[in-house]
Amino acid sequence: MRDRQVGRGGDHGGEPRRRTRQFEAFVAGAAGRLLHAATLLTAETRARNPRAQALLTASLAHTYAHWDRLRGEDPYDRTRADLAARFARAAWRHHRGRGGVLAALTPQERLVLVLRLYEGVAEEQTAALLGLPEERVRAVCARAVAALRDRRDPRAGSGPRDLPGEVAS
User: Reduced to 3 states, what is the DSSP secondary structure of residue 43?
Assistant: First the structure.
């Protein structure tokens, strides 16, 4: 039994440390943007976003668990996809926002808007990720943008500043 363990395991004491260092470097570089995306999805504020933090923690744990199986796949894309899927599965819990810039939108509108405009995911990829036709993604995105424009305060002269592109004009 010992021979089998030594033969299989060998001296790979450095492998788990290397994996951990790689993952920690990934988290250091990506966690801020991923947390912001999660905060937009849950429609919480940056100052108070416990649901977004829990969502991100679960997605990062999933990515870490599968780190050795990524094989050239971008860990950011993998984590973002997991984050979106987790949010979609639990969207009924996040229907009402808590003061975030996207609080007035439905969970599906928030998900499409964050993926398309904040994350810059192509329409085709967003549709595939969410299991929706491209036309539906296009319509949901347009409806969400229109809803945000309608909610602008005309006295302020500007809209939300947390999203790039046409939403934050």
Answer: coil
d(CA 57, CA 73): 20
Query: What tokens were used for 26?
Result: 């990934």
Which tokens sit at 49? 């976003």
Q: How many CB atoms lie within 10 A of CB 116?
A: 23
Who wins on pLDDT, 100 or 9? 100
Cα gap 62→108, rounded to integer Å: 23
Instruction: Specify the 3-state DSSP secondary structure of 144.
Output: helix
d(CA 34, CA 29): 10
Strands, E, within 36-103: which ranges?
none
- Give CA–CA dist 32/29, Å, rounded: 7
In terms of Cβ atoms closer than 10 Å to its own Cβ (0-12, 13-18, 19+), residue 146 is exposed
Q: For residues 36 and 15, what is the distance between their CA atoms, to the nearest angstrom?
A: 31
**pLDDT averaged over every residue in the chain:** 81
For the stretch 28-57, pLDDT in tens is: 999 999 999 999 998 888 899 999 999 999
